[in-house]
Write a structure and sequence with these properties.
Helix content is 51%, strand content 5%. It is mainly alpha-helical. The protein has 2 domains: 78 residues, Cytochrome Bc1 Complex, Chain D, domain 2 (Orthogonal Bundle), CATH 1.10.760; 77 residues, Cytochrome c-like domain (Cytochrome Bc1 Complex, Chain D, domain 2, Orthogonal Bundle), CATH 1.10.760. The chain has a two-stranded antiparallel sheet.
Amino acid sequence: MRRFMIALLGGLLSAGGVAAVAAQDKSAPDANALQDGRKVAGMCRTCHGLDGLARIPIAPHIGGEPVDYLIAQLNAFKTGEREHEMMTVVASGLSDDQISKVALWFSHFEVSGTLPADTSENDAPELCVGCHSANGISTLEDAPNLAGETNIYIETQLKAFRTGKRVHDVMTPIAKDLTDAEMQAAADWYSNIAIEISEPPGK
């Protein structure tokens, strides 16, 4: 019953998230701010690529992520709320302006996720689809895309939520109830989705 209620809550949040996204200003980002963000992104390219497509298995794809999510995570690394030996050092050296602009840079990319030909959206992990969708492209401004992330990255984050190393109002209670096998199944699902990150049309 508890899992059903969490899944239902995820669906309700998703509906609200879609409306919020639709209501956002879709005008092109400020060109100067975008270029400033690109300069900051230079320090991210070794792990995340300049386009946000991760170059190493333990780093997430960040191209096309919601700008609010990126800002929140960078601030969490900066303040110590979220810990990582590399990201803590990087984020602690960024000003609020740099964080906003590098988040703008990575968020301006378009991202899509394509399921393998022999799978159906109905097979997606029930507890994940409300926020992350069956194809791994987030429906909420404060939830990340999961499409194409590696198994090791997804499982590491789920276990961090389960142990309390990472804390989140929604993810912590969900992860605490997951078995290792369920975490692996979720990781397998999203890691098998093909991700594409590209410049918006006209760029």
